């Protein structure tokens, strides 16, 4: 088991390195840098001015050198401009050139400096991640139990009326992406034309003061899309368990149906949904980006959109590192959990 | 011109429909509740030995459900049929169903033909045995025909890009001011924020989806199959490497990938063109290997066949990736492609990058499915038999394993078209790739949502259109799965 986890960690690190290099490569292509120079410097810079601007700030170094600087295995780029301004990868406003550290990369715990928000990337990411974490917490609280209940009720008696109606419900939710269900919810529950003003159409206030009124719709929108899939997987695993030999034995022994479901079937039926829930995280991440844009909730997804829209290289890199680690960690947890929950795999 | 009401002269049907729908909802609820509360009714044994279940509350609820459902469907049909004949006299509903006349006719033809010949049509014919599959197929074909006829300018009432002054954010059914002869007199589903016709934009949006989604899914399948079969069949180092690459792409949040790939700056660097040049090779490899592995024992037949097929395929490939005589045309350098006079069609840069990124995102998942299926099937006896006969590995993969994996692959193909539709909508929603005035559903939803608290009509039609198409594809996949499991 220890070796297995160690190997998975190795693969994870390798994956993260490859992915960050891809992001690094794409964000450092020349047209992107040109856009960065124009938004940071002056919109009407000529091509030569753009070139010198980038040259002075170390953006024209070889790709691998820049990547090494970002990782913290190469000394940071420094330069003093003609007007005496000190610039560099490690330079921060208000810090004297002498105090600037030689290395500043991920390995030193420095995530860089956001060109859009004019702030430390580490601080921005942790703040936004906090907002999104709160959102995700409530999404999981709503989504997981209801999906499991729907799936178990549907899979309990395969082909029954309850099964068919709940399965239809889960198909409808998987067919409704967040931007469709969000728009429909906003139209029905918040607009003045329909008249049901039950909820707020934006979640901007929910960052400081989350209430049921301004926070329920975004949570519901994300939860619904993910729910159908988990419910269908739970149903499939439940129907499989319900046809197993030991359930038949229990029935023939005269155990009542509720007891069979609760005591015999449930524990075995929940192994598959556990892994599915864990693997659902990358999709939830997508949903978060859409819903945060739709409801104007300034979380991690919103920061992603801002960073990508303005080619904020270091913020984008930090965001991709975080999301890649979320994805890989959940994969790892699902693998370990699967082995832990299913004794047949542990033995073999 | 008078503004149109929703139902016009067939308004007398509205209370009837309301009653039928209320009855339907009540009987569904009653049906579910009764089925939970009661157990199976007692069974009566007939004298001839057959069994018959007594009509308890269960049977009653089922009958009620059947009748209210039939009544609702008949009423909906009545709206459509009356609308086709009465046109705008029957209000917005009538005018819209008259506009959709070619779609109704083609749907009736397709369904009549399919039901008549369903025993001879294999899996497709069996679809017409399952109500769920039929509903799904109907929804999908509705949008396919809408897309095709919309592209032929049969359904649309106005140019989806033209702005008519005075029609900004107008409610559905508003007549056009200063009407001239050739124009349609109303905005059937109202005007959007830029005074364009919402109805025509929705119809034109269907064409974009119908064009891109199935084709992109097909390409993703070609890539996934060409790489997944050897990975599953050979295993070993090749499998480890390919799986690592697939997991690499899968670990990327899709939206981040789109934001990195589908920007004007990236298009200017030519990265999407390189990706297109690589990804679009896979179908050629697939077809080439497929035919070669089958006919290599008969070189006299194989060689002309391969020359013909591959020649056409490579020509299509080159016309697909080259635009205006170049494969890649950036500021610094250019790579020559097919000369313009041989170029069959040009794909606009925006569409190409959307297409490429959707294929790129989908293919690793297909790869994993195909790999899993290949690993499962390669242990079967018929594969061992083929190996003993001395068949080559590619023959076994493409002509023994692949046909036997077709069931799950067809089901996944339907589901994946739906997922691709959702991805296209996501791209539009974030304003990536397609031009901002493009009538695709995602962009229209994105534009409409900004004024959603005051005007509902610009955002809801494309949202419901996308919902019904994806729902149709999901139901179709469900029906196919059910029917393919029956044999």
Automatic annotation (TrEMBL), chain A:
Keywords from the UniProt entry: Cell membrane, Membrane, Transmembrane, Transmembrane helix, Transport
Pfam families, A to Z: BPD_transp_1
GO-annotated cellular components: plasma membrane
Record localization: Cell membrane
ABC transmembrane type-1 domain mapped to chain residues: 129-334
Membrane topology: Multi-pass membrane protein
CDD domains: TM_PBP2
PROSITE patterns: ABC_TM1 (PS50928)
GO biological process, one term: transmembrane transport
Presence of the UniProt keyword Transmembrane helix in the record: yes
Superkingdom per UniProt: Bacteria
Spans through the membrane: 9-30, 135-154, 166-189, 215-232, 270-295, 315-341
Family label: Belongs to the binding-protein-dependent transport system permease family.
PANTHER family, alphabetized: INNER MEMBRANE ABC TRANSPORTER, OLIGOPEPTIDE TRANSPORT SYSTEM PERMEASE PROTEIN APPB
Protein name: Peptide ABC transporter permease
Automatic annotation (TrEMBL), chain B:
Name of the molecule in the record: Peptide ABC transporter permease
Any one GO cellular component localisation term in the record: plasma membrane
Pfam families the UniProt entry points to: BPD_transp_1
Keyword rRNA-binding: no
Membrane topology summary: Multi-pass membrane protein
The family this protein is said to belong to: Belongs to the binding-protein-dependent transport system permease family.
InterPro entries (alphabetical): BP-dependent_transpt_permease, MetI-like, MetI-like_sf
Superkingdom to which the source organism belongs: Bacteria
Domain ABC transmembrane type-1: 206-477
Main location: membrane
Organism whose genome encodes this protein: Ruegeria marisrubri
């Amino acid at each position: 088991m220890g070796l297995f986890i160690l190997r998975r960690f190795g693969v994870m690190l390798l994956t993260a390195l490859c992915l960050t290099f891809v992001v690094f490569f794409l964000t450092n292509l020349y047209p992107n840098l040109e856009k960065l120079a124009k938004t940071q410097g002056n919109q009407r810079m000529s091509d030569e001015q753009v070139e010198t601007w980038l040259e002075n700030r170390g953006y024209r170094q070889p790709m691998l050198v820049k990547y090494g600087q970002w990782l913290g295995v190469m000394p940071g780029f420094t330069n003093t401009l003609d007007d005496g301004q000190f610039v560099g990868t490690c330079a921060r406003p208000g810090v004297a050139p002498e105090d600037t550290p030689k290395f500043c990369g991920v390995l030193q715990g420095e995530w860089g400096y956001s060109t859009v928000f004019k702030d430390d990337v580490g601080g921005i990411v942790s703040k936004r991640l906090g907002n999104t974490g709160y959102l995700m917490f409530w999404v999981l609280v709503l989504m997981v139990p209801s999906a499991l209940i729907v799936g178990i009720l549907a899979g309990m008696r395969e082909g029954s009326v309850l099964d068919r109606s709940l399965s239809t419900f889960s198909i409808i939710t998987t067919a409704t992406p967040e931007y469709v269900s969000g728009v429909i919810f906003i139209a029905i529950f918040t607009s003045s034309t329909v008249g049901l003003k039950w909820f707020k159409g934006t979640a901007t206030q929910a960052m400081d003061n989350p209430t049921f009124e301004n926070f329920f719709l975004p949570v519901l929108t994300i939860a619904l899309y993910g729910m159908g899939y988990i419910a269908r997987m739970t149903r499939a695993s439940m129907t499989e368990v319900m046809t197993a030999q030991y359930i038949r034995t229990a029935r023939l022994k005269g155990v009542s149906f509720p007891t069979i479901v609760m005591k015999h079937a449930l524990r075995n039926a929940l192994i598959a949904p556990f892994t599915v829930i864990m693997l659902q995280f990358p999709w939830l991440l997508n949903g978060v980006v859409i819903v945060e844009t739709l409801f104007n909730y300034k979380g991690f997804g919103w920061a992603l959109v801002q960073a990508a829209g303005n080619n904020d290289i270091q913020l984008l890199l930090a965001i991709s590192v975080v999301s890649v680690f979320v994805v890989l960690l959940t994969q790892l947890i699902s693998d370990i959990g699967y082995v832990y929950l299913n004794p047949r795999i542990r033995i073999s | 011109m008078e503004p149109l009401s929703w139902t016009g002269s067939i308004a007398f049907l509205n209370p009837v429909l309301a009653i039928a729908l209320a009855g339907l909802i009540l009987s569904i609820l009653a049906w579910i509740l009764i089925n939970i509360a009661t157990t199976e009714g007692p069974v009566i044994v007939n004298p001839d030995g057959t069994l018959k279940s007594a009509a308890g509350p269960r049977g009653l609820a089922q009958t009620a459900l059947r009748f209210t459902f039939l009544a609702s469907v008949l009423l909906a049909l009545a709206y459509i049929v009356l609308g086709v004949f009465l046109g705008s006299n029957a209000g917005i509903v009538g005018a819209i169903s008259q506009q959709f006349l070619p779609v109704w006719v083609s749907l009736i033809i397709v369904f009549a033909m399919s039901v008549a010949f369903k025993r001879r049509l294999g899996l497709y014919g069996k679809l017409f045995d399952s109500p769920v599959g039929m509903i799904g197929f109907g929804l999908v074909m509705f949008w396919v025909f809408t897309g095709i006829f919309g592209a032929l300018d049969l359904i649309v009432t106005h140019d989806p890009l033209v702005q008519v002054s005075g029609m900004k954010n107008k409610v559905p059914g508003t007549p056009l001011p200063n009407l001239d002869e050739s124009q349609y007199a109303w905005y059937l589903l109202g005007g959007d924020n830029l005074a364009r016709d919402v109805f025509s934009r929705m119809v034109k949006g269907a064409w974009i989806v119908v064009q891109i989604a199935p084709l992109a899914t097909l390409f993703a399948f070609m890539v996934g199959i060409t790489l997944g079969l050897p990975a599953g069949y050979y295993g070993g180092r090749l499998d480890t490497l390919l799986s690592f690459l697939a997991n690499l792409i899968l670990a990327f949040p899709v939206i981040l990938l789109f934001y990195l790939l589908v920007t004007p700056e990236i298009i200017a660097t030519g990265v999407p063109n390189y990706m297109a040049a690589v990804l679009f090779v896979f179908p050629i490899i697939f077809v080439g290997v497929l035919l070669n592995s089958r006919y290599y024992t008969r070189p006299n037949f194989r060689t002309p066949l391969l020359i013909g097929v591959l020649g056409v395929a490579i020509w299509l490939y080159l016309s697909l990736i080259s635009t205006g005589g170049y494969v890649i045309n950036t500021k610094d350098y250019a790579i020559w492609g097919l000369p313009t006079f041989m170029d069959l069609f040009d794909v606009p840069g925006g569409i190409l990058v959307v297409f490429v990124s959707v294929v790129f995102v989908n293919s690793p998942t297909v790869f994993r499915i195909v790999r899993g299926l290949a690993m499962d099937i390669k242990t079967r006896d018929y594969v061992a038999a083929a190996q003993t006969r001395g068949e080559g590995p590619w023959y076994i993969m493409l002509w023994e394993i692949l046909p036997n994996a077709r069931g799950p692959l067809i089901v996944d193909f339907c589901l994946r078209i739906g997922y691709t539709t959702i991805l296209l909508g996501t791209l539009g929603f974030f304003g990536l790739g397609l031009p901002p005035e493009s009538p695709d559903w995602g962009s229209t939803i994105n534009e409409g949502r900004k004024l959603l608290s005051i005007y509902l009509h610009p955002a809801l039609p494309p949202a419901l259109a996308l919902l019904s198409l994806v729902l149709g594809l999901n139901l179709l996949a469900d029906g196919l799965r059910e029917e393919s499991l029956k044999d």
